[in-house]
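User: My instructor asked us to take a sequence, write out its structure as tokens, and then describe one feature of it. I'm not sure where to start. Here is the sequence I was given:
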Amino acid sequence: MTSFARLARSPFNPWRELGGLPRESWILAAASLINRAGTMVLPFLMLYLTENLGFKPARAGLVLSAYGVVAVLWVAVSGHLSDRLGALRVMRLSLFSTGLALWLLPLARTLPQVLAGVTLLALTSEAFRPANLSLVGELAGPKLRKQGFALNRLSINLGFSVGPALGGFLATYSFKSLFWVDGATSIAAGLVLLARFRDSAHKEPQTVSHLQLPSLALFDPRLLYFVLALLPVMVTFFQHQGAMSLYMVHELRLSEAAYGLMFTINTLIIVLAEVRTNAAMAHWPHGRALGLGALLLGIGFGALAFAHSISSIIVTVVIWTAGEIVFLPTLSAYVADLAPRGRAGEYMGYYLMAWGIAFAVAPWLGTAVMQRFGSQTLWLASLGFGLLSAVLLLRIAGGETAKRTAENRQLEAPVE
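Assistant: Let's start with the prediction itself. The structure tokens for your sequence are:
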């Protein structure tokens, strides 16, 4: 046995549960890693708008909310396109066009120009996500689906451990450099999928049209309840894209680099602990895992009400990171269980609408509450939102998921 093989099977390897995934899953993960390693613009967009363009916080929050509104309206459509045109084709187009949109955005100076640029960025970048999630589940197959989503999360977080931290240092010298680097990594990821991914290895799912299925995924009562239950805790989670940066940099007088370091700590913990944690919790019902994750997210962001130093903020990051580790991988797995054959992109698209709604509401709501009522009120309200989602998500029964999984397996059986 080679040294590499011994290392891969070692009990000290935090990722050994990922063995057995096909080559294409790893290429897809490599593209996601490259793309995420350049994630700099969105985490620092609030600071760019307020410090570089001179926008007031409420107006800057409006720009971020505009991105979320477009995402809500577009992500479900792009999910349908993924099912119709092919997930791989949609992903390639999304990555190349996102790079161009990022390079154009620094040319915008006025509010209408910035809104137009952010709208274009949302249209190009948000098409990637439902296609990516549906392809991850398809490549891994039912038996390795959890490992496939774990690898996808691992690659995203490895990249994200680099992007915001590097962005924090680049922002010290030039905010515009964030757009150039972010756009270049997006195009590089597209080139990886174009050059290394064999189209023949990816077979488009076939829609089963003779079965009685909901005309739209959002009319599926299980998915509808799930999406509505997610919204409160997602509003809490997205405070790290808006109010958290203002709280740390403007109120606590910490540097942009310190703010970026929080993302590095967050993602390094995820990289080291997420695969093992989810493997150990694989037998848990979805409702229990989602409820615990929402609770920890609420506690982590709520604790910011009492955090006034970088050490205490790191403690809060550890708490909500633990919630993220439990919460986020379970989301995609649950939706994959719900989705009928040939409609994974559609179901993922409607599920991702919840993310878009939260992104649309959270920056504006968070900055507005902070300005009017103070930061402590915002963080305590975030705790309440997390508790609300935890209670609602605990009602998701494992038996319902198992029943739908069995139905999907019947759909996937060949028709004689």
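For the description part of your assignment, you could build on this observation: The chain has 18 helices and no strands. Try explaining in your own words what that tells you about the chain.
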